[in-house]
Amino acid sequence: MPALNTPFRMALAILVGAYVLIDFGIPYLPPLLGFDSAPVPNTVVLQYLITVGVGVLLWVSDNEERWGEFKKPIHEVLVLPERRIARNALLVIAPLFVAFIAFGRATPDVSAPPSFRAIHPAPPPNISFRGEAMELTGLENPLRSQGSLEVHYEDGKRVYYQNCVACHGDALTGLGQYGHAFNPAPLNFQDVGTIAMLTESFVFWRIAKGGQGLPNEGTPWNSAMPAWEDFLTADEIWSVIIFLYEQTGHSPRTWEEAEEVTEGVEQ
């Protein structure tokens, strides 16, 4: 019976175990902790598997003896005459597997979406922020009437570059270092279809409650943003909102404009 602790078999077991843990194990962990399940994006799975693969290669090539043991079964399958059946099977199975994956990726999905999703779902009339009730209807940014707008802008700039830039990017376009890992991508604040259409209280709600606070029409899990009320104060959120609008050149929608749109729909 062949040994099960050879470098090749151990490396293969680590890669398979890592894939099972990342793609299947992690999504089932949040429900055990009382949170909603969050699927892992394919790009994140690939990124972590590449990291694990690099680690495995570093381990097997750590010394000449282990590296030789690792290459031995590969060399035997590719060279030895008695392994011809395994070699021919590999030459057939590998292309078929690649073709199957490519076909699955290229085939369009014609199934109906499981539910309709609103890009900007209606906010609740009031929320609880850090245990205190906050009325959103008619709420304006209180910092705009307190102190210097430039000071609040600088505070918001600090908050943004300490917490938000990794996903939303230096140019506020949603193309941060980790932005490509999420589907849909983080919000592009430069787009006139995003914060320029929203009141500041709406933006406060979305930042404070994150993806977990989306109502039913905003789900399934279509926002990976955390609930920033767990990390930021109300003034820090209001200041970063000022930074977003000032930096992009957009003006927030006022409640008068929002009411006019609502009345026009009703008529």
Helix content: 40-55%
Query: What is the CATH H-level superfamily of the largest domain?
Result: Cytochrome c-like domain
DSSP, total strands: 2
Class of secondary structure makeup: mainly alpha
What's the architecture of the largest domain, going by CATH? Orthogonal Bundle
Order of helices and strands: HHHHEEHHHHH
Query: Strand sequence of the main sheet, in spatial order?
Result: 1-2
| Percent range for β-strand residues | under 5%
Main sheet: strands, sense, barrel: 2 strands, antiparallel
Tally of contiguous helical segments: 9
Tally of discrete structural domains: 2
- CATH class designation of the largest domain: Mainly Alpha
Radius of gyration: 26 Å
Shape: elongated
For the structure shown, list the relevant keywords.
two-stranded antiparallel ribbon, Cytochrome Bc1 Complex, Chain D, domain 2, 2 domains, mainly alpha, 3% strand, 9 helices, 267 residues
3D structure, described in words:
With 267 residues, the chain is mainly alpha-helical. The chain folds into 2 domains: 100 residues, no CATH class; 137 residues, Cytochrome Bc1 Complex, Chain D, domain 2. Helices cover 52% and strands 3% of the residues. The radius of gyration is 26 Å and the shape is elongated. The C terminus is likely disordered.
